[in-house]
Amino acid sequence: MKPIKRSLVEAQQAAKAAAEERLHAGRSSLERAVLVAVEFTGERRKLTAAARMARKAAAVSAGSPESSSGDPAQSHVNPAQVADLDFEASLAEFQELARSAGAEVSATLVQHRPRPDPATLVGQGKLEEIEAVIASTGADLVLFDHDLSPSQLRNLEARLPCRVIDRTQLILDIFARHARTREGQLQVELAQLEYQLPRLAGRGKAMSQLGGGIGTRGPGETQLETDRRKINLRIDHVKEQLESVRRIRRQQRQRREAVPVPVVALVGYTNAGKSTLFNALTEAGVLESSRMFATLDPKLRQLQLPSRRRILLSDTVGFIRNLPHTLVTSFRATLEEVERAELLLHVRDASSPMMDEQKVQVESVLSELDVTKKPIIEVLNKIDLVPAGIPMGAPGSIAISGLKKQGLDHLLAAIDAALVADPLIEMRFRLPQSEGAVIAALDAGAIVEAKHFEGNLAYITARGPASLLNRFRRFQERVATSV
User: In angstroms, rounded to a whole number, what is the distance separating the alpha carbons of residues 120 and 128?
Assistant: First the structure.
């Protein structure tokens, strides 16, 4: 009987292992996607003057035939060439978005047209080409690097034999993949519901009357109205739950503010290296990934500055060009740390050829959040990937490498100098040696510049945050002087 029992156990283990292998294979399988990128030449996006100058400098450093003689005619950068570079970078970013969503790019189709087709965005000829590519590649879905109107989405789904997803829906899907906390999941669901609501109309025969045919007509709402009502009810329910989350956040913030600890928030374009820098400064061990939007839920960690002041460093979701407005609205609760922060660290990817345009996109979102008046330190990250001799950034910016932990001391000193809510002051204390708790607190939270003992008295000169030193003002020997 023992061999029989052993064989049964082995068979069960083998079946379990096979099932787990099939499950893993199913999870790891990628959906095949056809990417469609459209550039409307009649309304080419205008780059900022800084972006054009950056591209011109890059072209000169690369040895392009542009003249450096100062002749304006020879040194002029063709706007069409700049726009082409911008479109190529946008296309590369869209491909990375698709991979971050778990898609395998089977083909990429590009169309240049003066203006969008009102019915299908791309026009009849390109639509036939998309159909042929789907048939040849066996693609599961088509991704458009553009927002589709409800009618365009409806027409494309009726014509193409697979699912059609536009840029906003793709970003929402990535957010849904990366949401880990209940708050993040609620915010993603709210954005998805608000995106779906205007796109319900005409989604095939399922949206017709509840009954169909002779003898079934009568009063009652249509399936479309039923679904719209259900979505509106769900939106109200999700908003109530998010308000509950905000209420808990406010209570937590009030407890934090009872002990004044400044909040410094990392902001920047997606994949600029914010989480890598966050780990380098705090050793928090949060996820570092080259995938876009790897950080979705905010992280807060305590950090001690060179002055011994303590701050709360916040890692936030990355921004992206044409970030859907519904996401900014839905993630207002997450971005509250940015709104409440005393100081913002704008982390930029110094190795990106699009770093100037990315800066414009980030500043656009910060303007929408109404935080542009806050003090901002510009941090140029990934300098280890920048070739030697290439100038980086504007005066006042701080060059670092979060991965190699280069320049972090300079950054911490800049943060120390920029915080004004809890200024650094210097005090001299005269206190009994029996006040060991006070002496220990000064040693731990301030820089002790001088200390000596006379009899039973201790004389200490300390430089540190006003919130700490003022707690022991009763032992002050002379008036504090600002640093």
Answer: 11
Cβ-based neighbours of 246, under 8 Å, separated by 6 or more? 333, 336
The fold of the 28-62+77-165 domain, in CATH, is Rossmann fold (3.40.50)
- Which amino acid would we find at residue 360? V
> What is the pLDDT averaged over residues 350-379?
87
Q: Distance of CA 59 to CAs 49, 64, 471, Å?
A: 15, 5, 58
What confidence tens digit (pLDDT) does each residue in 331-347 have?
A: 665 677 788 888 999 99
Which amino acid would we find at residue 388?
A: A
The rounded distance, in Å, linking the Cα atoms of 279 and 301 is 10
Q: For residue range 109-152, what is the model confidence (pLDDT) as tens digits?
A: 999 889 999 999 998 999 999 999 999 999 999 999 988 988 99
| Sequence letter at residue 98 | A
- Secondary structure in 3-state letters for 393-440: CCCCCEECECCCCECHHHHHHHHHHHCCCCCEEEEEEEEECCCHHHHH
Q: Report how far residue 432's alpha carbon sits from residue 441's, in angstroms, rounded to the nearest whole number.
A: 14
- Domain 424-482 class in CATH: alpha beta
Spatial separation of the C-alpha atoms in residues 459 and 428, rounded to whole Å: 7
Query: What is d(CA 255, CA 252) in angstroms, rounded to the nearest whole number?
Result: 5
Q: Where in the chain do CATH 3.40.50.300 domains reside?
A: 261-418
Q: Which residues in 194-230 are b (16+ Cβ under 10 Å) and which e? A: bbbeebeebbeeebeeeeeeeeeeeeeeeebeebbee
Tell me the per-residue pLDDT of 248-283, one tens digit each, with 9 for 90 and over: 877 776 776 666 678 899 998 888 888 889 989 988
Q: Where in the chain is the domain with CATH 3.30.70.240?
A: 424-482
- The string of pLDDT tens digits covering residues 169-188 is 888 888 887 777 777 788 88
Report the C-alpha gap between 403 and 216 in whole angstroms: 67
Q: Which tokens sit at 110?
A: 């590009």
Indicate the pLDDT class of residue 79, thresholds 50, 70 and 90: very low
Residue 235: beta bridge partners? Answer: none
Q: What is the pLDDT of residue 207?
A: 43
Using alpha carbons, select from 356, 396, 349 the residue that is nearest to residue 50.
356
Cα–Cα–Cα angle for 232, 251, 330, nearest 5°? 30
Amino acid at residue number 274: K
pTM: 0.69
Q: In angstroms, what CA-CA distances link 104 with 34, 39, 121, 261?
A: 9, 23, 23, 46
Q: Which CATH number fits domain 261-418: 3.40.50.300, 3.20.20.105, 3.40.50.720, 1.10.443.10?
A: 3.40.50.300
Alpha helices in 211-354 (DSSP H): 223-258, 274-282, 325-330, 336-340
